[in-house]
Structures are given as C-alpha cells and as structure tokens.
Amino acid sequence: MSAINNGKIHASARNAGVGVLALLLALTACSPSTPQPGGTSQSAASSGAPPPAPATSTAATSTAAPSASATVPADSDETAPPQSGDKVISSTVALDWTWPGPGQPFEATHTNPVPLPPPAAAPLPTLYAIGAGMHPADTPPYDQLSFRFQGGFPSYNVEFVPELLADASGLPVPMPGTGAILRVVFHGAQAHTADGTASTITSAPAPSIGYPALTSYAPAGDFEGVLTYGIGVGRPMGTVPQTKVRVYEVEKIEGGQHLYVVAIQLDASSWK
Length: 272
Fold this sequence. Notes:
By secondary structure, the chain is α+β, with helices and mostly antiparallel strands. It has a domain at 82-271. 15% of the residues lie in helices and 32% in strands. The chain contains four helices and ten strands. The protein has helices at residues 2-30, 42-46, 58-61, 68-71, and strands at residues 87-98, 106-108, 126-135, 142-150, 155-161, 180-187, 214-223, 226-233, 245-254, 257-267. It has a five-stranded antiparallel sheet with strand order 1-9-10-4-3, with no helix packed on it. Residues 1-72 have low confidence and may be disordered.
C-alpha cells in the first residue's frame, strides 16, 4: 500500500513539474525580447549574427581637403548665366591688399608663346569680356572689375595716377565723378581682332558703374600690344586714407570659353 502511495506521490510530483515547465515556456514565448544597446534585439544577438554597424554622418566625418574654389574666392562677376561645364581651374592671389600709390606700381609678368603662322588664334591674349560686381558681405567688403582674356594671362601693372592719359596720344581721358584713378596697363594683350577691324569684347558694363568704391572705368589705349584702362575710385587720394587694392588671377571655363581673368578688387570698407 505504501509503495502504491509513494508511486502516486512521485507521479503527482512529475506531473506538477511538467505543468510548471509548460507554464514557464508559455510565459517566455509571450514576453517581448529586451532591446540591446544600438538597436540589436536579444534574439538577433543570440543567433550568432554580427550586429549591424551604426550609421555614420558623412558631413560629420568627411576629411576631404577643400577645393581651390573653396579656399580662394574665385571671380564671381560672370558675364553670362552659369552653364553646364563651368568650373574654376585655378585661383591665385596675385596682389594682396595694399596701396599701389603713384610711383609704387604692382607688376605681374606672364610669358605667352607666340603661335607660328598661320596662327590658329590671335597672336596675343585678347580681351573677351569685362565684368563688375559688388561684394558687401565679404571681409573686407569690396567692389570688383574683372578683365577676361582668351589665350593666356597677359603681363600687367596696377598703379594710382593723378590723371589717365591716352596711349599713344598722351591726351587726358576724362573720368568725371571720381576721386582717384587706378590705372591698369596690360602688356602683350589686345582688345581687337588680328586684322584690327573689330573689337574682341563681347560684353562689358556701362562706363559709369556707380558702386561705392568703383565709380567708373574707361579705356585709354589698345596699341601695339599695350591695353590700358582707368578705374575710377570714389574718393580723392590726398584727403582720406588710401584705397587698398587686391588682384586675383582666375583660370576658368565659363560659358564654354577657356578664360584667364584678372580681377581688380577695391576695398570698400569706408562706405560700409
């Protein structure tokens, strides 16, 4: 009798254990898995599969070196709407902010090979366009007149002068409404076709520009490879601090043309 009772007790214990185990399994199946750090669930972690790599922000981790156009402001006074293929090839500060007063000219020298006859292009760099623009948000703020050449950079000098004289007559060139005159002389350059019958300039602003620092400009000669311009600056030299000048040389593709830009910038801080 005791053996039978003992057998019933053991069977009851086994049945109770099985019931508890079944209850625990059921509860486990219904409970959600606890998310792990990084968004990996417990089931994925226990499967042996490696957790996905965390997302990375390209902007935050980019270490690419800035382009030339990002570190050096390129000429931005385009004479035509941007087109596909426009790009800056190089941009260089030829003259940092300084005052090229009378007797203190800034000079830049460039050498261009003379093409063999018959020339495929004009024998000298030719002036293709002139652009102008205000840049009041820059530091310092400045006004700019840019000369766009085809064929290469010409040599040039930049100097403040008491008056602008025409080449080759030597007669004064009127520049009304300006306080000072900055003369720019390009050597080994021209603004006319090889046969001398037409101008090569396709676009240019009106002579009376009217910016704070850059008031006007005027041609003063296109003779025997010497191209001269006067730039009117809106204050006299003798009564106020001298206007500083900066020059950029920019090689670029613009509107399908390969251009060499000499950008003359005038410090406009006194008018800000």
